[in-house]
Amino acid sequence: xxxxxxxxxxxxxxxxxxxxxxxxxxxxxxxxxxxxxxxxxxxxxxxxxxxxxxxxxxxxxxxxxxxxxxxxxxxxxxxxxxxxxxxxxxxxxxxxxxxxxxxxxxxxxxxxxxxxxxxxxxxxxxxxxxxxxxxxxxxxxxxxxxxxxxxxxxxxxxxxxxxxxxxxxxxxxxxxxxxxxxxxxxxxxxxxxxxxxxxxxxxxxxxxxxxxxxxxxxxxxxxxxxxxxxxxxxxxxxxxxxxxxxxxxxxxxxxxxxxxxxxxxxxxxxxxxxxxxxxxxxxxxxxxxxxxxxxxxxxxxxxxxxxxxxxxxxxxxxxxxxxxxxxxxxxxxxxxxxxxxxxxxxxxxxxxxxxxxxxxxxxxxxxxxxxxxxxxxxxxxxxxxxxxxxxxxxxxxxxxxxxxxxxxxxxxxxxxxxxxxxxxxxxxxxxxxxxxxxxxxxxx
Amino acid sequence: xxxxxxxxxxxxxxxxxxxxxxxxxxxxxxxxxxxxxxxxxxxx
Lengths: 444, 44
Prior knowledge:
The complex is a heterodimer. Chain A is of the alpha/beta class. Chain A has helices at residues 2-6, 49-53, 96-100, 147-154, 197-211, 231-240, 292-300, 340-360, 382-386, 412-416, 429-439; strands at 16-24, 27-34, 57-59, 68-70, 72-73, 85-86, 113-119, 122-124, 128-130, 144-146, 175-182, 216-221, 244-255, 262-268, 275-279, 281-286, 288-290, 328-330, 370-372, 392-394, 400-402, 422-424. Chain A folds into four domains: 2-121, no CATH class; 129-289, FAD/NAD(P)-binding domain; 291-360, no CATH class; 370-439, Alpha-Beta Plaits (2-Layer Sandwich). The chains are: A alpha/beta, B mainly alpha.
């Protein structure tokens, strides 16, 4: 990320949002809302003297709210660009930071600013969000946490500097349960497999086991899905390390109100017995969801989404990078949940795909396009409302004009037109009529 | 789709290819009924 930021030809607009798009491949006009961050990116050096004087502490969102930070603080150590971050809603406006800043970088008069960019191609990589349902008492029982929270706890720069503690009494848990497929592979919630959680459970359980060999770790699963290069070996090493894998679903879970331990009823697959087990901490491998950004950008860019909510690719097997809109490409978890290596492959593919038409300088398109006939048009303008690509407009003489580049040749306008004044080249009404007449001959 | 899942369908079915299901208007459907079709299935 730092390398990208230093690159002369890469311009990173952080804390910004795409609000509108116009145009077509090679000539997109994108409106970007640069949100007021109240800090001048060019002046701030990230020295942190403002953080020292700031009197207000807020939950640290980067640490999944497991630690605290100041209202003005760096978002996280490796943040790019390395400028301070103000949580404006919690700021009491004492302006102590303004006084202490040597570079006059803090500017509370900043407002949101809309800028317009002209770009040739677009890549959408909006990632994923974590499912945070109340399954297994998450949110109620203190010692039930999700994998991302565990990641922060185990991180050397995290809230506990990498020391494993449980939230309720800050003591080290020795009996730990990992539950896989929380909120995923469940037709009532998310029917799909979230792909990464099996390996994530293996990684984190192995990390705990190597750090604290006396830990008792049990991992329950529906199926262990560690397909991919090196993953099966990783799974084998986890079993060899002494992590216990049990196939089956957790029936019920309750919290011991005194010890805050979790008492779990578990039915192993293939048996008719129910085991009752007690754990100090429970880790949920929660489902991955399309991120909030994916949902928003799909609306702005008029992109389709698959039934699971992730962005829809042109073809799930043969072209998972392109979209229905030429010039817009997708990669990573915005398209569907995947591992890091596959995200990297797809990102490189998307980068190449986006570069090809730009270097070539021309773009070939099909000629199946709507064509209006002015004489027949009754000017009801139903086609304008019906066009999903906003390709139809009215010219000065109130005649219909079709933008041949934005038109995708779907034919909705041709179907809706009451006077057959707009037709689809190669798929005209009279051609269809002749087609139907031939298929269904009248016998008499 | 029917081809992908190797589904069988009766030989009395006639298929008309359209670029998009949006292209199917009432005129095409009515024409088919007028020519004696028992039903029209719009499949996307």
